[in-house]
């Protein structure tokens, strides 16, 4: 999420709640987890359980020094922790933690605790441990807490691998990538007219890693008007970076629209969606589509769009095997953007741990006229609501990667394009499928494209094989008649067996 977009969420969390009310939740948590005591993950669960029995205390930013909530972005990002303010720097543990200052749109306070030798230690705010750049430092003796933290990994050449800041947002990447999409630990009522409810983290407990373990464990205390929770995240960075997420939720109210495994990102324009697009760059997107493996094993891919109107799509399933928002375009010439380098942005793949039952992968596509907005949201929505007073656990493995770690032995839809058709309201679509088997002459001869449009009629269907590139190009036109929406489905078939994933698309007028 862009800093500005994240800030809009962060600002909605802040109110003028009196300081004594703000401290009441902290007192409750400290009655369960006190500084200097032995830490156990079950203590965060117990703190969330106790917190759920009381009304939510909104966050407050009334303690911020004057001008900090309105800092320009370029000044805010100039505030960085000095080397002496980094947690575990110089200890050769493979990770360092940089506490992040409050200000700009990140005005909500977060408490940080380090768990060292199994003992809880509060990370105290100290203005002397920050370099303020062009910003006037806050008054001495003020405890501002923090807005979140950065995680760096590597001993000889450390690099940032994760950022946890704002509401329940966090982001990560694989080695060699740039930051792009972001995740949310929990999402409630997105896209609804009654308004979205924004959960947030009140505090984090970060376990000091063992040397050379390559693993960092983070515990977060989640709070919201309708739910509290304990979230345990296990970070394993590398050529693929994995984050295992385990949540225990305590519902204060009935949760009839809850989302797990949420990812957000930007799709502004590309060959499959060029609404109000006038730019020297051919494409502008950090994500190209949503990929799914259903509970039955079917692999599905849906290209993203920047629609004229808000679009919400539901892909019904039972016990999904995986889903996520992916960036399939890795050719820098597809973007010609040497600043943003969209081809280096991560794909984010969710693998449920355990059975999730019935529900749907939800895809929300929000129209935007700015590439700075995160206008794409995907998550799993369980069909069964979570009842007030109940306790719910959910777990999944998140991969920040170049491509999902589990890949089908099928041809993938690597590029999609659309444009004006040959007549009337027809739309012309071209889809390229790429796979190792598409250089086999026998398979190519037996392959046909199965295309449906609901509603609508398919015309001028053609296939062009390019065995030297292991690619099969499919072109067709859709005549929607008098309809303004058509759901499209395409799969390559040979002898009754699918040789490609299923390509889905929604055309709207």
State the CATH class of the domain at 412-508. Mainly Beta
Q: Span between N and C termini?
A: 28 Å
Strand fraction equals: 35-45%
Radius of gyration: 24 Å
Q: Which structural class do the helices and strands define?
A: mainly beta
CATH topology of the domain at 412-508: Immunoglobulin-like
Q: Ranges with pLDDT <50 over ≥5 residues?
A: 3-21
Main sheet properties: 15 strands, mixed
| Helical content class | under 10%
Number of helices: 5
CATH architecture of the domain at 412-508: Sandwich
- What's the mean pLDDT score? 93
Inertia-based shape: elongated
- Per CATH, the superfamily of the domain at 412-508 is Immunoglobulins
* Count of DSSP strands: 35
Please sum up the structure shown.
Pfam families: MdoG (PF04349). Helix content is 9%, strand content 42%. It is mainly β and 509 residues long.
Topology summary:
Elements: H1 3-12, E1 14-15, H2 19-30, H3 41-52, E2 59-60, H4 73-76, E3 80-81, E4 95-100, E5 111-116, E6 119-122, E7 130-131, E8 148-153, E9 159-165, E10 169-172, E11 182-184, E12 187-188, E13 200-207, E14 216-223, E15 227-236, E16 241-251, E17 258-265, E18 267-269, E19 284-285, E20 289-293, E21 299-303, E22 311-318, E23 322-326, E24 347-352, E25 358-365, E26 376-382, E27 391-401, E28 412-420, E29 427-434, H5 441-446, E30 447-454, E31 457-466, E32 471-479, E33 485-494, E34 497-498, E35 502-508
Parallel strand pairs: 1-2, 5-13, 21-35
Antiparallel strand pairs: 3-7, 4-8, 5-6, 8-9, 9-10, 10-11, 11-17, 12-17, 13-14, 14-15, 15-16, 16-27, 17-26, 18-19, 20-21, 20-23, 22-25, 23-24, 24-27, 25-26, 28-29, 29-32, 30-33, 31-32, 33-34, 33-35
